[in-house]
Amino acid sequence: MTVSATTLPTPEEKSGLAKWFPLIVLLAAQFSTMADNSGLAISTEALIALHGASMPQIQMANAMYPLIAGAGMIAGGLIGLIIGWKRQMIIGAGMLAVGSFAAAFAPNMEVLNYGARVGSGLGACLLIPAVLANVAGIYKGKDQAIAFSAIAALVGLASAVTPLLFGFILDVASFQVAFSGLGIYCLFVMFGSMKLPTLESSPFKGKLDTIGIALAGVGLLCFVTGLLKISDWGLIKPLTDFNLLGMSPAIPTVLLGATLLKVLMVWERRFEEQGGTPLLPSSYVKNPQVVVGLVLCATIFLLFGATGFINVSYMQLVAGMSAFSSGMALCAFALGMMIGSLGAPVKLAHLTCQRICQLGFSIAATGTALMFLGFTTEGITFWQYISLTIFGTGAGLLASQASIVVTSALSEREAQQSGGIQATSRNVGQAFGVAILGSVMLFSLTGAIKSNVAEHEALSTETKQIIIEQPSLPFVSNAMAVDLMENLIADKEEQRIVIEVMAESRLQSVHYALFTLIGLMLGGLALCSKLPQRSLMKSEE
Question: Domain limits of the chain?
C-alpha cells in the first residue's frame, strides 16, 4: 500500500524530539560553518610554527573561506532546487569535512590556502543556504520563528565558543588535532543530514543560469575583496607597491564588482523573461519586504563584524589578551545575543516586527555608547563586558526578525531558494563592517598620530618630520610600537613620547570607529520604517 504525502505527519503534528530533531541537525550544521572560519582565525602562531607562514599567507588563509563562500552563496541557493535541499546538506557537510582534514594535513601554506580553504568555502556555499532552506521548508508559523531565532542565537554562541574551544585544543594539542576534530564533527553533521525529511518539490525543469552564476561569483568576489583590502591597499593613495595607475586598486576592484553585479541584475531579468530559472527571481527584487529584509540581514552582520573587529583588535593588541581570553570576553556578547534572539519569540511575539527591530537598534546603540567607558589607553574595563552584553541583546532581537522578514513575503519554494541570497547579504554586510571600521580606525589613527606629534612641544622638528612622512602608521601593541620607533627614531626619550602619543591615538581611533558604528545604527533605525507593522512570530491561523 502506498502512503500519500498528505498522510504523513506534518512538523506541527509532531512533538518533542521528533519535531525538533531536524533543527538540532541544522544548528549543528550552522555551527560547523562558523567553527571552520573562527578556528583558523586564532591559529596564527600555530601556522607560523607548523608551516613557517608569513603574515600575507595567514591573511589569505583567513580571507579565502569567506571570499569563496560569499561569491558562491547565491548559486548555492539555486542548486538546492535542482538536487534537493537534503542532498545539498549532505554534500556540503562532506565537503567541509574534506576541507578540514585537508587543512589538518596540508604540507604547506599553498595547499592549505588554495586547496583546503577553497574546498571549505565551496562546502559552505552549499551548506549555509541549505540550512536556511530547510528551516523555511520544515517549520511554519511560530515554529519557524523559533527555529530562525535559534539559528540567530547560535551565531552569537559560536562566535564566543569556537575561539575558546580551538584555543584550548591548540594550547594542549596541535593544529592537526584541532582541524581533524572539526573534520570528524562535519562527518557527524553529514550523517545527521541523512535523517532530515525530504522536502516536497516539483522537478526542476528550467534552464540553469550559468551566466548568472559566473557574474554573481566574479562580481561578489571582486566587490568583497576590494572592501576587505581597503585597509591593506589604501583607499585612494596606495599603501603598498601594488597600485593601479598610481592609485590604490581597492576602490577600482569594488567598482568592477559593483558593475558586474549591475550587469547581473539586467541579465537576470532577461533570463527570467526567456523562461529560465534565475538566481535572483523578480519576486525578490520587486518585493519591498524582501529587499528590506535582505538589507536587514546585511546590516546585522555589518554590526556583528564591525564590533568584533574593534574589540578583538583592542583586546589582543592593547590589553594583551590571548585568543582564549578574548573569546572569554566575547562570551558576554554571545550571552546577550542568545537573550535577544531566543527571548523575542517567547516574550515579544505580540510586538510588530518594526517595533522589535526599533528596540533592537536602540539597545545595540546603547551598548555601543557604553563601550566608550570600556576602552582605555591600557586596555579594557569591566564596562566592556556590560556593553557587549547589551549590544549582543540588541543584535539578537534584530537577528530574530531578519530571515523571517524575507521568508514570510515569499512562496514556500521561493523562501527555500532565498537562503543563498540571505547568506550572501550577510557575508557582504560583514565585509562592509570590517572594511568600514577597519578603514576608519586605520586612517583616523594615522591622522591622529601625525596631528598629535606635530603639536607636541617636546619633540624635535626632525622627529616630527619623520612621523609625518610615513604613508600610514599601523594599529599595533606598545611592544610592536617600540620595535617600529627604534627603526625610525634614534633618541630614546623621543621614542617614549611618540609611543605614548600612539597609545592615546589608538584610543582616539577606536572612539571614531564607535561614533561610526552608532551612526550606522541610526541608519538602521531609519530602515525600520520599511519593515512590516505586524508580528511575524505568531502561529499561522
Answer: 19-142+165-197, 210-280, 444-513
Alpha-carbon Rg for the chain in angstroms: 24
* pLDDT tens track for 76-115: 877 887 888 899 999 999 999 999 999 999 999 889 988 9
DSSP 472: -
Distance CA 345, CA 129 (A): 23
- CA–CA distance, 109 with 3 (Å, rounded to integer): 54
Q: How many Cβ atoms from other residues are within 10 Å of residue 292's Cβ?
A: 20
The CA distance from 356 to 69, in Å, is 30
Closest CA to 135 of 427, 408, 336, 429: 408
Give the amino acid at 236.
I
Residue with C-alpha cell 579565502? Answer: 64
Question: Rounded to whole angstroms, what are the CA distances from 188 to 29, 93, 128, 181, 224?
Answer: 9, 9, 16, 11, 32
Query: Minimal CA–CA distance to 166: which of 178, 156, 184, 155?
Result: 178
From first CA to last CA, the distance across the chain in angstroms is 33
**CB 14, CB 178: distance < 8 Å:** no
DSSP 148-211: HHHHHHHHHHHHHHHHHHHHHHHHHS-HHHHHHHHHHHHHHHHHHHTTSPPPP-PPP-SPP-HH
Backbone phi, then psi, for 193, in 5-degree steps?
A: -65, -25
| CATH level 3 topology of 19-142+165-197 | Growth Hormone; Chain: A; (1.20.1250)
Angstrom distance (rounded) from CA 117 to CA 60:
9
- Could you report the per-residue pLDDT of 223-282, keeping only the tens digit for each? 877 877 777 787 888 877 788 888 889 899 999 999 999 999 899 889 888 877 787 788
C-alpha triplet 285, 538, 355: angle, nearest 5°: 65
